[in-house]
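Subject: for your reference before the review

Hello V.,

The reviewers asked for a structural picture of the protein, and I figured it would be easier to keep everything in one thread rather than splitting it across files. Below is the amino acid sequence we used in the manuscript, unchanged from the supplementary table.
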Amino acid sequence: MNQPALIFWSRLIQAAAGVVLALSAVLLFAPSLGETFFNLVYFHQPASPVPVPIEAKGYIRFANGIIGAVMAGWMMAIIVLARRPFQAGERYAWNAIAWPLLAWYLVDTAFSLAHGVWGNVLLNTATALMFCLPLVAARRHFAPDA
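And here is what came back from the structure prediction:
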């Protein structure tokens, strides 16, 4: 049985996943805009601070597209989990959303810190907060692990 609180938190999780899906779509379908966005995150300016050979630009667009595809697939899985099993209070759905998000945040943010990319640390933190707030708020509606 779906609880009204879980439906609310589920919708916030789905909305957060929708935001990430939108960024994923930009990386896939508007690569120049994606590059501008990441240049702002990484270099605090819309263009790369150094000239980039055309061959490297192709690789950067390809890598950004792969990142977008992986993120899109992950967000679709989160949306599917958040819709039915999460709303029904199935503990595995909470775990399947929360633990991979935590692992991604810790690894990606540590990597960004090690490379001094503070913009990505902030982007990761904002993204994590979009998911963390509804996950933490919903946690009490799930039975403990057996």
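For the response letter, the relevant points are probably these. The CA atoms of residues 27 and 63 lie 9 Å apart. The chain has five helices and no strands.

Happy to draft the paragraph if you're swamped.

O.
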